[in-house]
């Protein structure tokens, strides 16, 4: 252990020696960042005029990683875990005569955190009721362990991850304040013109990501995917006290009204209420942060100095950290057959009463959920059939959007889902060709659109695809049809009809008029009857078939009844084919 520590300190000192030769200013200026005394809180008194011995002395602490960042050190230097404040202070004592043998407060401020990053790069944080503030490598491992445990607690199975980091805007303001403070203090010194802070330096986010990613990879036995992974770990840092103080100092934009909590419901303590409250607070925090960032971008340096304290005051507590994990949605697609006339496509409840025995969405969804272990599901289908209409033939294309899965299903597990559905005791629904598919399929399946423009993958061309659907309908006519009636229907090709929104769905659909195409029809008499016929037809997707048969009091024209010149009613309807070139 002693040899390891000695090696780590040697590495840190080597980094400092290279920095002193290349990017560092005179070492007394570096020490000024590590511990700066000045006499007044107010930015109206330029720090360059302040004396260290004044009675209202305040100490600024900037952590060693922020010092390295501010002076343009590279990523390996900023993220070196063995580079601590004590190592830097020891290095300064050895090489800077101005602090040898003197009293220095930069290592005695145990109750303070970095005035720039607010302890994020220690990395220190406050989570729940306890404080975590180990120093150096052990603390990096601790925060990595905490994140890893959060992932394991949720039961995620991963081989790659990306890190998303959200920081309070006060960090940006504090970094700017430190830069301006150093400029005011050293602008007249010759070295400052040559060693001025680089404009492009590593951000706190980038430094933290580089700092903890290797430890996380080791803890979770997974690769850090640099933002391209479907599994995301989000670290959300907040510092309410510092953010609220900064917000109060900034000018409000015209017409901006601060949002207040307007809930006036009962004082409940259920989990849904807690989640809603948390979501509301997060939204307000996000809006406040956006306002601060926008305002800071529009403030010139002179105005900034008049508004914000230079340098920023010491911070007595670190940021609050919340760790959350999420996986991008996955899609399982195929085709379903609905064999019952008492099963809806989605769960259908009217006045707290369930319509039908079950739904396609629930039957498929509960089997997907059992394998994938997810937060929720969204069911998407290429159109829908009424509850009393069967879906036969090759089936209707569908997708299940699975949100935040804990376990990515294997090919075998997807087949198990299909088998569980098809072998269920109640023969309501069957599925076929179940597979994991890409999200581009969803763009080809927007429900209710008869006309879809689909971008061809890997090309700049596009096509307009008119989806076709085939039906078989048992109909009744008020008179017996003659051979010429049957012939007139059977020779119909690509007939255009006009349909107003059907009366039966006007309560939930906009009152529109649509043009649709009847591609072809065939009709045959039901044996042993005089007024019953089996009608087969192929139509443009989005055609209301029931209304096309009976005319819907003239709202669909022409209709079968109008063509035959008699009353026509539909008794049974089946969808026999949905013609799409995907999810076959």
TrEMBL record:
SUPFAM superfamilies membership: Pseudouridine synthase
Compositional bias of kind Polar residues: 278-287
Disordered as annotated region, ranges: 246-287
Entry's Gene Ontology molecular function annotations: RNA binding; tRNA pseudouridine(55) synthase activity
A GO biological process held by the record: tRNA pseudouridine synthesis
Gene3D superfamilies: 3.30.70.2510, 3.30.70.3190
Listed Pfam families: Pus10_C (PF21238), Pus10_N_euk (PF21237)
TM stretches of this protein: none
Domain Pus10 N-terminal eukaryotes: 141-320
Database matches in InterPro entries: PsdUridine_synth_cat_dom_sf (IPR020103), Pus10-like (IPR039894), Pus10-like_C (IPR048741), Pus10_N_euk (IPR048742)
Enzyme class: isomerase
Chain ranges of the Pus10-like C-terminal domain: 331-578
Keywords, ordered alphabetically: Isomerase, tRNA processing
EC number(s) per entry: 5.4.99.25
Recorded family membership: Belongs to the pseudouridine synthase Pus10 family.
The protein, known as: tRNA pseudouridine(55) synthase
Originating organism: Paspalum notatum var. saurae
